[in-house]
Amino acid sequence: MLSNRQEELLKLIVEEYIKTVKPVSSKSLCDVLDCSSATIRNEMGILEDLGLLEKTHTSSGRVPSEKGYRYYVDNIMKPKELTGDDMLKLQTVFHNKSLVLSDAITKSMEIISELTNYTCVILGDTSNENKVSKVEAVPISDNSLIAIIVTDKGHVENKNIILEEDVTVEEIKQTVDLINKLIIGTPIDEVSAMLEYEVKPIIGKYVKQHEVLYNAFYNAFSDFAQDPVIKMSGTKNILMQPEFDDTNKIREIVSKFEDKEIVSNIKEDKNGINIYIGSESEFDDDVSIIKTHYTLNGEEGTIALIGPKRMEYDRAITLLNYIMDNLDK
Amino acid sequence: MLSNRQEELLKLIVEEYIKTVKPVSSKSLCDVLDCSSATIRNEMGILEDLGLLEKTHTSSGRVPSEKGYRYYVDNIMKPKELTGDDMLKLQTVFHNKSLVLSDAITKSMEIISELTNYTCVILGDTSNENKVSKVEAVPISDNSLIAIIVTDKGHVENKNIILEEDVTVEEIKQTVDLINKLIIGTPIDEVSAMLEYEVKPIIGKYVKQHEVLYNAFYNAFSDFAQDPVIKMSGTKNILMQPEFDDTNKIREIVSKFEDKEIVSNIKEDKNGINIYIGSESEFDDDVSIIKTHYTLNGEEGTIALIGPKRMEYDRAITLLNYIMDNLDK
DNA sequence: GATTAGCATTCAAGAAAATAGAGTGCTAAA
DNA sequence: TTTAGCACTCTATTTTCTTGAATGCTAATC
Q1: Residue B161 pLDDT greater than 60, yes or no
Q2: Domain A130-228 carries which CATH code?
């Protein structure tokens, strides 16, 4: 258990380091804590023994450890008020009423990455709340067609399908009508089963080239659930941070950003705003990630803010909270 | 005018530098040119006076200048045969027949960036060859609908539209039917005019909330022509090149890659494969860009390969040519 | 028992000097 | 026209020194 002074000291060191990116010396805190540097050094020693502080070399000042940041975030940090300036920029998103929701998230992401100078990632999934609203097929050539699926939440997916065998326009129309009749209103995650057990048996009776067409639509729908949308904003921001002043580190991060599989792992399941510090992020030991899962009118996904370990956690959280609150409305 | 030996010398220096990224010394070429280093130094001096070679400092070996690369590309370089290995990897794209064309380009881009270790960019435009094939509108809520436009080449665009005033399902249906009747077959770049002069006058007679609906569709179509698709592959590749072993240079390039406006400038209009060396690229003085414009079954755009100035121009061109030839089929 | 002054100690970071070696340019001879 | 030979230039690396900002510890003080 930390004494009041120890907590105060940890707080000062974390906040000073976040600001300056330089190890904090005992002397520099004398004034604030109103005691001598020797006393502070003693306390620092204790915090270091507890694993909350670290040194970069034997005679350097102290730097928060991962555990130190964790303690700060869990026990010390207080929510921060939004500054008028931040507020002002955020307003521009929410006052534009003609923005469709999905655009609003994207726009928020851009603003948040700009305000914080961190990198913002959106991993969007199509929520299972989506129900099929309309299916359409437009023939393009003799052996290809475009299958279009619209959901009640306004999602549109289309797929260009090559047909292995010739199919008549009439057959396509029949199939589409049939599918529409049977699956409108079906939640998107149940469509595959629906197609297989309800549509497949019936389609054979009415449509000649039923195999080909069934397969085409089955593939179109199976794509729907998959590949989450990845959007990033401010990729460069995190690379600009002084702690990443190393070509190989930058290359490593850029490589990870480019790898969809790695980025997809940033996905968050828990509710509320969650903080992952350094190695906790499972993305890169030198970054922290603040994530939150959102469900918003048929869209669902993760919004994540990637910054250095010395992130301004309080401000970032406040900003994210503000955005989430306002998107709800 | 260069002598044979001078051309040979330039060729050797360019190719050696491309391979090693180290200034080339006179001594290292004695064997190949079968003369003394002093002779080579004399010739090098001439090439330097002509601005084809440069030194990094007074007593360093020679490095090709921008003009040197240009001379090499224009006068010396010969097309390169594809290696069996390259060929093999490329085959995988073209043997997959169920790949729709647009996917084939994307896939080619990925392979080409992987084979060359350069960065590949595709700037896709919707060609004006596209003609409207079908328009559809699906109501989502009382005050919003999804407008969908399909072209004869298989392009689909959709837009979520918020209606300022209430509109009935019946009115939407009427409008869509009307638009379909009037504009199917219209080239995409003429749709705006068509809407304004043909549809607008008529729509008023049949549809009550014609203003609102007209505006909605007008906006949906105006989006179509705009925002070209940008796809990138192997962003990290160029950052890995040894000449970019500098954090600020890397940051600069990443920033440019992130800026859609800058990337859009890479667009190519000329036919055939074009080479832009260093400052000619107008993207960054330290890179070269090989670009080609493609028109392919209703899709149109630019495919660009971004590498260091010491690119393997011959190989890159051969690869691009191979891809373009095969996409045509 | 907690605090602090004082002092030896450690280490990074930067400047300065020393060294080695890879190249060049130029001259004079072949 | 070519080349051997040599002085010269510059980079890159290593080494040494110096400075100053920290620390840890001890012993005196509050």
Answers
A1: yes
A2: 3.30.390.60
The third-level CATH classification (topology) of the domain covering B4-76 is Arc Repressor Mutant, subunit A (1.10.10)
Q: Where are the domains of chain A?
A: 4-76, 84-118+234-327, 130-228
Q: Which residues 6+ apart lie within 8 Å of B43 measured at CB?
A: B5, B6, B9
* B145, B150, B157, best to mutate vs chain A, most A CBs in 10 Å: B150
pLDDT tens for residues B42-97? 999 999 999 999 999 999 999 999 999 999 999 999 999 998 988 888 887 777 65
Structure tokens at B13: 């220096």
**Structure-block tokens of residue B311:** 């690119």
- Residue A82 CA from chain centroid, whole number: 22
Cβ of A173 under 8 Å from any chain B Cβ? no
pLDDT in tens, A127-185: 777 889 999 988 888 778 888 988 888 888 888 888 777 788 888 888 889 899 999 99
**Contact present, A61 and A40 (Cβ < 8 Å):** no
In this prediction, residue B71 carries a pLDDT of 98
Note whether B145 and B158 are within 8 A (CB). no
Q: Does domain B84-118+234-327 have CATH number 3.40.50.300?
A: no
Which tokens belong to B21? 């990224």
* Residues 227-286 in A contacting B (C-alpha not used; CB under 8 Å): 234-236, 239-240, 244-247, 250-251, 254-255, 258
- B295/A328 Cα distance (integer angstroms): 44
The backbone torsions φ and ψ at residue A126, rounded to the nearest 5 degrees and listed phi first, read: -85, 120
- Of B131, B127, B126, the closest CA to residue B185 belongs to B131
Q: What is the pLDDT of residue B130?
A: 84
The model carries a pTM of 0.90
Contact B243, B216 (CB under 8 A): no
Residues B267, B124: contact at Cβ < 8 Å?
no
Distance CA B259, CA B281 (A): 16
A150 in contact with B, Cβ within 8 Å: yes
* Cβ–Cβ pairs < 8 A, chains A and B: 89
Which residue in B302, B141, B299, B158 sits closest to B219, CA to CA?
A: B158
